[in-house]
């Protein structure tokens, strides 16, 4: 059998391994850590609190189901999930609370009651977003932007009429502020820039398509938490014959005559006809193929934001909170100015709280909750993270305690912290940037590294630092694009 080597077992690498196995390759995944998942791992803290370490939002579940279907399996025998009736609970400094229902009609009704917006106006906006998404997704998300064939595809015919409405020449914030009067609704829509680590005051209006995923399709929760996604896919991969070699980092991609021919690990060389890197694109070039010409314009793109995460065991239940909760800052512009211009954290950051024990009671002791508390922060560029962690922790506690009317710090029974330096060390994400490069300019999507090497035959790339971007759905799509590019193993028929 033709052999394939996958470097890294993040969600993109696992999905790549499955697609290659379905194509007939003998696949081996090399992982530097002791287990699979990349950022999608889990852990427990003393007292019986389970946490998903990284991603917390799950959209477009059909992209996971598709992998089981490709392998001829019934997805429900491996992986189950439920659609959330409520996507997010929002809290503003002025005391406004809004329930963002997954159903567009219900969300628009709630927004009309709580914010200065007409229901029909918001529904028309969401219908427009849906129309633009369906007109463009097949071209910009499901195919390589670096192949001529993409632009000769019939999908382009439905994309072209949508281009003038995509907001390419304006920013997310400018487009939202023009569409809606209420600054709270504008802030709610602006926050979707953070879904790929960008700044709504710089990122193009194109990113305003992201809310379509939640309000027109829905948000979902996997049984067992986000970690269940990686766990179920690894099970499928192993059934397909994929081998996972843990604590065996790849030291080099061996190149011979402009072709990837093997990967080198501490245990020796592993020959392969296909090599797929799920490692961040920057260390892939700098560490694994340092003698090869690097695409400097791509690698030098501004990094995305990172995250500062506090994992807290909380000795009380809060019925006013849901699975996903947002506590907004007073000055959103100032918050992003600090992240992307000043490379620090504002005194009044927006706080995201994810509580999986709301839907998985076993994730916390009875009457307690497991709080995943995240603040968007700059990528690591030498900041004093010890100082920033303490300052941000106090800002978070002050904000959340005020909204909830209780001293949250007194309820913390156990704690762990993950900062950009730790994210970089644990996941090889360059500078701790969660999404590779940011999308803070109109050409950012086209400057992401392609899913293949134009100079090294047999070398491919998946994951959040390459096209089409970061987050669970886009990482899965990066593997899909890669799979479409890799030739199927020829079937030999004996006489």
From TrEMBL:
User: Pathway, per Swiss-Prot/TrEMBL?
Assistant: Carotenoid biosynthesis
Among its keywords, does the record have tRNA processing? no
Domain of life the protein comes from? Bacteria
Per the database record, which ranges form the Amine oxidase domain? 11-480
- Which molecular-function annotations from GO does this UniProt entry contain? oxidoreductase activity
Matching Gene3D superfamilies, A to Z? FAD/NAD(P)-binding domain
Keywords, ordered alphabetically: Carotenoid biosynthesis, Oxidoreductase
E.C. numbers? 1.3.99.27
Q: Which family does it belong to?
A: Belongs to the carotenoid/retinoid oxidoreductase family.
Q: What is this protein called?
A: 1-hydroxycarotenoid 3,4-desaturase CrtD
Q: Which organism is it from?
A: Rufibacter roseus
């Amino acid at each position: 059998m033709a052999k394939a080597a996958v470097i890294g077992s993040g969600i993109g690498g696992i999905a790549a391994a499955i697609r290659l196995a379905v194509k007939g390759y003998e696949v081996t995944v090399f992982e530097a850590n002791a287990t699979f998942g990349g950022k999608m791992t889990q852990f427990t803290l003393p007292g019986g609190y389970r946490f998903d370490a990284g991603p917390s939002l799950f959209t477009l579940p059909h992209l996971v189901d598709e992998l089981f279907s490709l392998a001829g399996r019934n997805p429900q025998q491996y992986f189950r999930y439920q659609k959330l009736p409520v996507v997010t609970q929002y809290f503003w400094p002025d005391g406004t609370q809004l329930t963002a229902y997954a159903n567009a009609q219900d969300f628009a009704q709630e927004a009309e009651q709580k914010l200065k917006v007409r229901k029909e106006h918001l529904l028309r906006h969401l219908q427009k977003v849906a129309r633009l998404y369906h007109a463009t997704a097949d071209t910009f998300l499901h195919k390589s932007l670096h192949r001529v064939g993409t632009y000769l595809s019939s999908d382009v015919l439905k994309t072209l009429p949508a281009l003038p409405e995509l907001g390419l020449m304006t920013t997310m914030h400018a487009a939202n502020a023009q569409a809606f009067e209420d600054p709270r609704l504008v802030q709610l829509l602006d926050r979707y820039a953070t879904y790929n680590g960008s700044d709504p005051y710089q990122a193009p209006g194109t990113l305003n398509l992201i809310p379509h995923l939640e309000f027109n399709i829905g948000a979902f929760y996997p049984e067992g938490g986000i970690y269940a996604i990686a766990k179920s896919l690894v099970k499928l991969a192993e059934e397909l014959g994929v081998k996972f070699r843990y604590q065996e980092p790849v030291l080099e991609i061996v190149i011979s005559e402009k072709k990837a021919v093997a990967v080198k690990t501490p245990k020796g060389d592993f020959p392969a006809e296909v090599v797929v890197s799920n490692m961040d694109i920057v260390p892939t070039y700098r560490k694994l193929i340092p003698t090869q010409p690097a695409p400097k314009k791509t690698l030098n793109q501004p990094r995305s934001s990172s995250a500062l995460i506090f994992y807290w065991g909380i000795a009380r239940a809060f019925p006013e909170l849901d699975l996903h909760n947002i506590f907004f800052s007073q000055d959103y512009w100032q918050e992003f100015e600090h992240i992307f211009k000043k490379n620090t954290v504002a005194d009044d950051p927006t706080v995201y709280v994810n509580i999986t024990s709301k839907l998985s009671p076993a994730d916390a002791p009875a009457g307690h909750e497991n709080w995943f508390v995240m603040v968007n922060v700059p990528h690591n560029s030498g900041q004093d993270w010890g100082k920033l962690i303490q300052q941000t922790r106090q800002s978070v506690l002050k904000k959340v305690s005020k909204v909830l009317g209780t001293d949250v710090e007194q309820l913390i029974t156990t704690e762990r912290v993950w900062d950009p330096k730790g994210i970089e060390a644990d996941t090889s994400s360059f500078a701790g940037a969660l999404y590779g490069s940011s999308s803070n300019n109109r050409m950012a999507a086209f400057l992401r590294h392609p899913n293949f090497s134009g100079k090294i035959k047999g070398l491919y790339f998946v994951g959040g630092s390459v096209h089409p971007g970061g987050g669970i759905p886009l990482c899965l799509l990066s593997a899909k694009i890669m799979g479409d590019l890799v030739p199927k193993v020829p079937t030999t028929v004996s006489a």
